[in-house]
Every structure is written in structure tokens, then in C-alpha cells.
Amino acid sequence: MIRIFLPILLLASVFAYGQKVPEPNTKFGKITPEELQVKVYSIDSSAPAVVLFDVGNTQIVGNDKGWLSMQFKHRKRIHVLNKNGYDYAEVTIPLYKDGNDETKLDNLKAVTYNLEGGKLVETKLEKSGIFKEQIDKNRSRVKFTFPAVKEGSVVEFEYTIISDFYFTLMPWEFQGSIPRLWSEYKFELPQFMDYIFLAQGYFPFHIKDQKNRRQSFYIRETNAAQRTETYTIDANVADNRWVMKDVPVLRREEFTSTLDNHIAKIEFQLAGYRDPLTPRRIMNDWPAAAKSLIEREDFGRLYLANNGWLNDDVKAAINGANDPVQKAKNIYTYVRDRFTCTDHSSLIPDQSLKTTVKNNKGSVSEINLLLVAMLRSAGFNADPVVLSTRDNGYAHSIYPLMNRLNYVVCQAYIDTNLVYLDASYKMLGFGKMMYDCYNGTARTINEFAPHVEFLPESLMEQKVTHATIFNVDGKWQGNVKQVPGYYESFQLRNKVQSEGMDGVKKDVQKVFASNALLTSFQIDSLKELEKPLAIQYQMDMQTNGEDILYINPLLGEKVGDNPFKSAERNYPVEMPYTFNETFFATIQIPDGYELDEMPKGMRMKMNEEGDGQFEYLISRSGGTISMRVTMDMKRTFFVPEEYEMLREFFNRVVSKQSEQLVFKKKK
User: Fold this and answer.
1) Phi first, then psi: what are they for 136, rounded to 5°?
2) Which terminus of the chain has fewer CB atoms gathered within 10 Å of its CB, N or C?
3) What is the pLDDT of residue 196?
């Protein structure tokens, strides 16, 4: 049975099964001079290059090792339109080897086509232009650059890969950094292999069909007597075919976790074997996957071992505390402050905990597994949690696809309370994680492997600003008190550490430019890492005796430009957290001036549910203007159909926040 998993991201409406469309001639070398005469393609007039076709085909074949291999054939043709497209004439093919199992590259051909004097000229890639690089003991890559490439060239390559690694097949991306006129993938799936199909994206299939046939698979093996024996398996084969046509570029825009979450592609994971092979399940469930991690010498054995050598460190970390919460906080602070994180994308440690302690540095997995070990040594119930960060893509909620995970944090029960800890960031408080970790599915690595959900909606970034502008001794002066959100506070703490208080002060001064001059600036709670900061500064408001003063009453506390600039968006908006920002101001009309213009009040909801709300209230009483402005976003995820609603909401917010107070000099 073929099991197909379609993530929620893949909208049901995108499929058009069996649709008849014109098909290009995708045979290698079948090109006409007319193809090279095209200067611009309607799909994207600014594209530096366009993929004319990209065709892949995967088969399961018998090999001479007594088993099965994966055979992947790839053929691609690209029209290089200008110099900015030259990078697409460079090709890298990754290869892998593990013991006797390996991937082999075969039948590589590459040709550049140019028009010279109206005639089609071919320049073939020579063997001397093909280079193989060894990356490490397992990984290598073949690289080449097409010869004789210039503006207007068409380049084409073809190759075959034979691989012993068929558990995870070559993924196929229908979408990329340049437009693709035709992207086609075939998978010839024998009945005796059970694969899970993982599809994602928002672009429709033009063709999606399946045809069944019968095939014989020949497996050869050399026995102890050096005789070759051949086995035959007769089985049904399902020829699956997917085609997308005129696929646009997926460009990165604001509020995107990673384009890898949304690019149109399909992946395959072997789940098991079926009759006529001996039925067997290959893909584990999460408890089995967790058990495997726990039993690994370079994961579970690190923190579950008898780590008596850590006793002195644990004692030093606890520092005499008796209260369970304080003990846990002291251990966390000890690990966070003493060890430097060298890599914030790491699932499996590369070194032992002893080496980490000796070097006072390690990857995120090494540091947080050390934290788990120390908490357990102190008597706490602590386990690692594995997840995928926002920039790494979504982890799968059902299937334990370990290659999608890249991060480890610590889960601990502290005085009956469950807390999550990440000691890899110096300025991160106890019980806090970076918003990058709030990316959906995670799993606790213990006997039961419970599902953990870290949702961006569970984070609220709240910011409050109070501003007072008043007249004193003939001067117009201002006083601002602000409590930024936790993550803004985290960034400011790092900036203070790297640039000092003056660096932060300079950034604030830039917001006001010549309108105000900061006279004092201070930040409180810098060392209280579980709390947001408290910022306070004073300023002299500059009037310079001008006849007309234009003042934005928000004093720089505004959205600025609309982050949603594109007219349309074909994938979701993913904000890292919800937020609420409130700005209070009391503004006295400057001495010698009178109020000429004042913005009108406004209340606005983004939709009926009030997922986004904006309130701009302003009034005048005598010589004083009072205002309160609130921006409240209660959702973080918006599907493409909601993009226009979101964009228009921010357009109106930006427009309103740009309105100014106008003061006229008294005559």
C-alpha cells in the first residue's frame, strides 16, 4: 500500500488530475535555434535565467549485491538570459558513502548551446572540466561549470545516480529561485516496497496520474564459490507521475520561517517491505525512535551514564541552595554563563560531555545535554526535547523523520512545575526559549516520547511606552519611559554587551534625528534576565524658532513601512509571536505656538474575529494633547487567501501612524 501524507500546507484545491497540457520535447539534445532567440519570458520578465524543463525519474532496481538499489535519472535545460544568470551554469551533485554502501554517478553529459551567425553551435563539457571534492569521510560532491556560457546560452545536463540508500529517496523540488516552465518527476514504485509520500506547496499540479504494469526485478549475488546467482522478483509497479507547468519563483518575504516549508516539492520515506518480500516495518514510531536515541553512545548514553565526575561541578553550581527552584536556577545559570555555544544547529553531539566541560564550549545539543545530566545528578527529573527551529523547517508531527530535527532543549520538573530550558544563549532567562524554537512539533526523549507543541501563538511580546512632552523655562522637553517585550529586551541586552550603553543610545537618537536631542539615557534590569528591560530617557525637543512645526506624536514608536509590500503572496505569513504595543502620550503645545492640525481618532479591526486590532485615540484639552495608540495582533499564521486582508490592515495602520501634529507660531 502507498501511504500519502499531504501536510495542511498543501491546499486540496491545487490538484488537477489527468489534465491534458502541451508537453515539451525533453529529450537530451533536442533543441532548435528558435529556443535560443527568446529574450524574455512572460512568466517573469526580470528573471536572469529560466528552467525550460527539469525532469527526474526514480526506479527501484536489482543490484549485484544481492539486494535492491535506487536509480535516479536527471535531465535539466536552462536558458541563461543575462550575466546574473551565470550562477545557474554551475552544477553540484552530492554523493555519499557509508562502508560498502554508496552513491555512484554515471553517464554525466553537459552541453552549452549558442547561436553564432544564426547557426546552432554546441560546446560539450570535457572530462577535464569535471571535479570531485571530498568533504569528509562520508560525503563528496561532483562539480562542473558549463563551457562557453554567455548571455543567451542554453545549457543542458543529464546524469544517472545509482544509490544503495533507498530509505530516503531523492526529493524533488518543482519550484526554485528561477522560474520553471516544465518540472516533471516520475517514481516507479514496486508493490513490495511501502513508501510514505510527503508533499507540500501551494502551486497546482498540471498532471498527476498513476499507471500500473508488471515488471521483473533481477537481483544478482556472488556466492562463496565466486559464482553469480540471479534471483527474480515479478511484481506490479505503479508508475507515478507529477508535473507542474509555468512555476513561478518563490521569493522570500517578511514574516517567513523558511521557504523550505512552502516550496512545491515531494519527498519519499521508506516505511516497510511487503509481499513477496518478507513483510517488515522500517519506519519506527516515535517511542521506538526515542528509544534508539536513548541507546546511542553519542546521545542518551551521555546524560544517562554514571556521571560521578560531574559531582564537583554540580555542587559548585548549586552553591549551597536548598530550595528546589533556586537549585535548578543555579545549575541553569552555571551552565549558561560558563559554556559558550559554538553551533545553534545541532541534534547529535560531536564530543563527550567531559570534553565539553574541559573546553567550556560546545554545540547546542552538547550544552543542553550537559544541563540535563547536571539536573539529573542533582535529583531532578530532566529529559532532552528534540525539535526543529524556524529557519530549519517544520518537524513532522507523526513520523520520526530525524533529518528534520536540528535542536535540543532541556525539559525538567521543578517543584512540580514543568519548565523548558535552553542554556546555549548567554542572555536567556530561566524558563525561556528563543522564539525560533516555537515552530510546532517537538518530542521529549524518554520512554513514552510525548508530543510537545511549541506554538508561536503561545508567545506574547508586550511593549508599553509612556511619553510626556512639556514646557519648562521656555524649553520644550520630553520624558520617555518604556518597557519593551522580552525578545526586544534580549536583543538590547546583547547590544549593550557588544556596544555598550552608548551604542543603544545612538540607535535611539537616530530615530529622532534633528527633532530631539537626548540629554540622558538609562536602562534598568539588565541583569534580571527573566524580566523585560525598563528604559528611560529625557530629551530636548528642537523647535529652532520655525514658523511651522511638524511632529509625529508617536516619537518613532510605529510600524514604519508596511512589511507586506508584494501585491500577492502564494504562501503563508508566519509571525514569530503575537504582540501588543501600547503608546501613551501627553503633549503640551510648545510655548509660542498654537495647534493647527491634529490627527483624528480611529478604531479598526482586521476581521470580524478581531485577530488584529488598531486603536488611535487622541484628544485636546486646553493646551494639552492626550493620546493612546494600541496595536494588537492575536494570531501569527495567515494563509495566502488572508494575505490581502493582512496587507490592507497594515497599510491603514502605517498611513495613520504617519500623520503628524502641526503647530503654528503665534503671531
Assistant:
1) -150, -165
2) C
3) 93
